[in-house]
Structures are given as C-alpha cells and as structure tokens.
Amino acid sequence: MSTHDTSEVPWSDGRWTTEPVSTEVVDGDLLVTAVEGSDAWRTTSYGFIHDTEHALLRDLEQDSAVEVEFLVDFSEQFDQAGLFLRSDETTWIKAGIELSDGQEQLGAVVTRGESDWSLAPVPYWGGRRATVRASRAGNAVTIRARVDAESWRLVRVAPLAPDECVQAGPFCCAPSRSGLVVRFLAWRTTPADTSLHP
C-alpha cells in the first residue's frame, strides 16, 4: 500500500449530495448532524429507493486513493458513517461502519442500478477511530478499513471503469432516528495501492 505523498483534504473542498442538519468544524474535526431518515439504497430486498445520504464529495482520479477517518460512536439501528464513492444516482458505493442488529458492522454497499450489501461484525471497534480507504486503479476500486493503527483489512473489490467519472469523500446516514452526530477526523488523498495483496 502507498503511504507516501499523503495530502489532507480541507472540509471546504467537498460538496454535499444532501445537506445535513448542520456542520461544525471543531479543533479541525468536522461534526455532522444527520437528518432523520437519511440513507442510500436502491431497490434490492427492501423495495425502496433512498438517495438522501450526507456525502461530502470531490473528484477521485484514476490511480489515486482516498481515506476518511471518523469516530465510531453509534447507538441506534443503522447509524452509519464512512466513505462514499458516486458516479451518478444509480452507480455508487458506500463503505464504513454501521450499527446493525445491536452491534458495529464493517461493510459495503455496491450499487449499479440495484444495491448489494456485505457485513462483518466488528463489535470491538466502538468508541475508536476507524479509517476507510478506497483505492482506484485499473478496472477496479479496492476498499480497505482499519481501526486505530491496526493492520488494514480488505473489505471489498468492485469493478470501476478507468474512464468513469467518480467523486468520493466522507458520508453519514441516520435511517432510523434524529440526533446522530458523526465526528470526522480526517479526509486524505494518497497514490493508489500498488497491489491487491500485501
């Protein structure tokens, strides 16, 4: 994985897909209050389409990677935050931590017309700093995540055409309640990972 040439992205560089209730920068961190019912999903299993996520996005070029770091502090069903990649309303990926069925889960939703969803429980990530990374190279985007300074773990490899126009950045949603505040700690860009496996 590439660790050189890391650049911090100012919070002011992105544009929201859906405006949150409020945002505030405190000690360099971005605090985002989510709208009740905000979510991103298309059709599969549930039957509905939700396109109301709070994603702060800017262009993600080929052969580059983006990281979002945030505090895992969720208490209600489907509270979620992480990294969002978007081509258009029917082509996007969200990856991060979600409170599902009573525990923190690390997962991703990959959407091309319809959504799919994968999850893995990470109950010991609560109250800690999670980082989600999307690396774009060749015909794919590779999603990795870690907590604190632990080793990166592979979350997902998904197809992404080299010439596809994509934007990426931090996101959060609160599908089931009001009052969710997510503290984003960093937004960074780096060169793309040099290989799929260490």
From TrEMBL:
User: SUPFAM superfamilies, from UniProt?
Assistant: Concanavalin A-like lectins/glucanases
Against Pfam families, the record matches this protein to: DUF1349
InterPro entries per record:
ConA-like_dom_sf, DUF1349
**Protein name according to UniProt:** DUF1349 domain-containing protein
Where does this protein come from, organism-wise? Pseudoclavibacter terrae
Q: What is the lineage of its organism?
A: Bacteria, Bacillati, Actinomycetota, Actinomycetes, Micrococcales
